[in-house]
C-alpha cells in the first residue's frame, strides 16, 4: 500500500462488496507518475479480504480497464481466506488458446524438470564461438536507470522502483548514528520495486493460459511464488551468447517506431541484411524500436496516452521461424517485447505465450539500446558477445538485470 488514498480505498473495499466504476478507480489508483485517465464503461465488483494482494488486483483491474484492452472485465474479489480473483472476459474477446491451438511447443525437449528452456541452446561451444564476435573491446550496459527521480518506464499498472535512504550522515549529525571502532560512517538504501519494473528477464513461468506454464507445469505452481520455472533457474545459469542488434527504427528511417507499428521475422532478416549482417541460429536477438528512448524525451502523459507499443507481431510463420532458428532470448527496448495487441486476432501479447510459455524463449524487456545502437551505426559492427544474469530472486516471476555486451 502506498498512499492514504490507497488505504482509504482498501478500507471501503473491505467494508462490503462494492460496485466501483473504473473511472473512480483510475482517478484514485493510477500508477505513480501516470496521469489519471477517463475509464471506459466497465464496472468492477469488488469485495476484499487480504490487503496487499487485493489492492494490487484492484489497481491492475482499474488500470487495465482504462487501457482498453480488457474491454469488459469483471473482477470478483471473493470474501474468502484465500482470495480468488477471476477474470471473465467478454464472450466476444479473442482467446489465446484458440489462437495458439496448433502452435509448436518445446515442452519436454530438455527433460521433465527443465526451467530454462531455449537457453539450453547456449552450449559451451556456442559461447566460445560467440566470444569471437569481440573485435574492439567496447563495452555497453543495457539497463535503464532504476529508481530514477525522472521516472522509470513500466507496464501500465506497475510503478517504478523507489529507493529510500535509510541511513546517511544525517544520523551522525543528529547524534543517532551507531559508533563503530575507528569511526566509520555509512549510507544505506532500501529499494522497493516490481520485479518487472526495470530492464528485466521474465521467468518462463511468468505468463500462461490453459492452467499450464512452461514445460507443462501446473499453473497452480505459481500460487504464492513460482515453485517451477522461476527466475532463479535463469539467474543461476546466466545468459551468454552471440548477440545481434536489429535496429528496426533506423532501418525504417525513424527515430522511434509509432505506437502499434509492427514488424515480422522477415523484417528482421531484411533489417539484418541492410546492416550487412545475417541472423544466425542461436543468436540472442536485440531489437531496437526507439520506444524506451522516447520515454525520456516526452512527458509521462504523452508516453502512456492510448498506450500501445510497437513490436513484433504474431503469425504462425514467425513462431516457426523462432523455433527453427533456435532463438534462446529476445531482447527489446519496449516494455513488453511485442506489439501490445495483435492487430489481426485482437489478443493481447500472444507472443508471450507462443514464444515464452510454449517454446521456452526467454524475454528481456525495457532494454536501453540507444548508446549501443549509435555505436553500431557508426562502426557497422552489429554483432557482439551478449552476457546477462538477472538477480537471484527466490521463486521470482522475473528480475531486474543489467546486461553487458562486448563488441
Ligand atoms: C506483462 O506481464 C503484461 O508484461 P511483461 O512481460 O512486460 O512483464
How would you sum up this structure, described in words?
The protein has 407 residues and is an alpha/beta fold. It folds into three domains: 4-89, no CATH class; 96-148 and 195-406, Glucose Oxidase, domain 1 (3-Layer(bba) Sandwich); 162-192, no CATH class. Helix content is 28%, strand content 18%. It has helices spanning 4-15, 22-29, 51-67, 96-99, 124-131, 169-173, 231-237, 248-251, 265-274, 291-295, 300-304, 316-324, 350-357, 370-379; strands spanning 18-21, 43-46, 73-77, 85-89, 139-141, 162-167, 188-192, 200-202, 239-247, 262-263, 284-288, 311-312, 329-332, 362-365, 383-388, 398-400, 404-406. Strands 5-17-15-9-11-13-14-8-16 form a nine-stranded mixed sheet, with helices on both faces. α2 (22-29) packs across α3 (51-67). It is globular. The protein starts with a helix and ends with a strand. Residues 6-89 have low confidence and may be disordered. Bound molecules: acetylphosphate. Acetylphosphate is lined by residues 155, 196, 202, 207, 335-336, 349, 352, 365.
Amino acid at each position: 500500500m502506498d498512499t492514504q488514498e490507497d488505504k482509504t480505498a482498501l478500507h471501503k473495499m473491505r467494508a462490503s462488496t462494492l460496485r466501483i466504476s473504473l473511472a473512480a478507480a483510475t482517478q484514485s489508483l493510477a500508477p505513480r507518475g501516470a496521469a489519471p485517465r477517463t475509464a471506459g464503461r466497465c464496472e468492477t465488483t469488488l469485495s476484499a479480504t487480504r490487503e496487499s494482494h487485493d489492492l494490487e488486483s484492484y489497481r491492475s483491474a482499474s488500470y487495465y480497464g482504462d487501457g482498453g484492452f480488457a474491454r469488459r472485465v469483471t473482477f470478483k474479489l471473493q470474501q474468502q481466506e484465500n482470495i480468488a480473483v477471476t477474470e471473465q472476459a467478454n464472450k466476444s474477446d479473442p482467446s489465446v488458446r484458440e489462437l495458439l491451438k496448433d502452435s509448436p511447443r518445446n515442452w519436454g525437449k530438455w527433460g521433465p524438470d527443465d526451467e530454462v528452456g531455449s537457453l539450453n541452446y547456449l552450449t559451451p561451444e556456442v559461447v566460445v564461438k560467440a566470444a569471437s564476435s569481440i573485435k574492439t573491446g567496447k563495452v555497453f550496459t543495457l539497463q535503464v536507470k532504476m529508481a530514477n527521480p525522472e521516472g522509470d518506464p513500466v507496464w501500465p499498472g506497475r510503478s517504478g522502483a523507489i529507493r529510500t535512504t535509510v541511513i546517511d550522515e544525517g544520523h551522525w549529525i543528529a547524534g543517532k548514528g551507531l559508533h563503530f571502532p575507528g569511526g566509520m560512517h555509512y549510507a544505506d538504501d532500501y529499494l522497493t520495486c516490481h520485479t518487472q519494473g526495470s530492464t528485466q528477464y521474465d521467468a518462463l513461468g511468468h505468463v500462461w493460459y490453459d492452467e499450464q506454464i512452461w514445460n507443462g507445469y501446473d499453473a497452480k505452481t505459481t500460487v504464492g511464488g513460482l515453485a517451477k520455472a522461476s527466475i532463479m533457474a535463469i539467474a543461476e545459469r546466466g545468459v551468454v551468447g552471440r548477440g545481434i542488434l536489429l535496429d528496426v527504427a533506423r532501418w525504417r528511417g525513424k527515430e522511434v517506431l509509432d505506437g502499434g507499428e509492427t514488424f515480422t521475422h522477415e523484417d528482421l532478416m531484411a533489417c539484418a541484411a541492410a546492416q550487412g549482417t545475417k541472423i544466425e541460429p542461436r543468436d540472442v536477438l536485440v531489437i531496437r524500436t526507439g520506444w524506451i528512448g522516447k520515454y525520456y524525451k516526452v512527458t509521462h502523459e504523452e508516453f502512456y496516452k492510448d498506450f500501445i507499443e510497437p513490436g513484433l507481431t504474431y503469425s504462425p510463420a514467425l513462431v516457426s521461424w523462432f523455433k527453427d532458428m533456435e532463438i534462446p532470448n529476445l531482447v527489446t527496448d519496449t516494455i513488453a517485447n511485442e506489439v501490445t495487441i495483435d492487430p489481426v486476432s485482437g489478443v493481447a501479447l500472444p507472443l508471450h505465450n507462443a514464444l515464452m510459455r510454449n517454446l521456452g524463449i526467454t524475454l528481456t524487456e525495457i532494454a536501453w539500446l540507444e548508446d549501443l545502437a549509435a555505436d553500431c551505426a557508426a562502426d557497422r559492427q552489429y554483432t557482439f558477445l551478449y552476457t546477462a544474469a538477472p538477480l537471484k530472486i527466490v521463486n521470482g516471476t522475473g528480475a531486474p538485470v543489467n546486461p553487458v555486451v562486448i563488441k
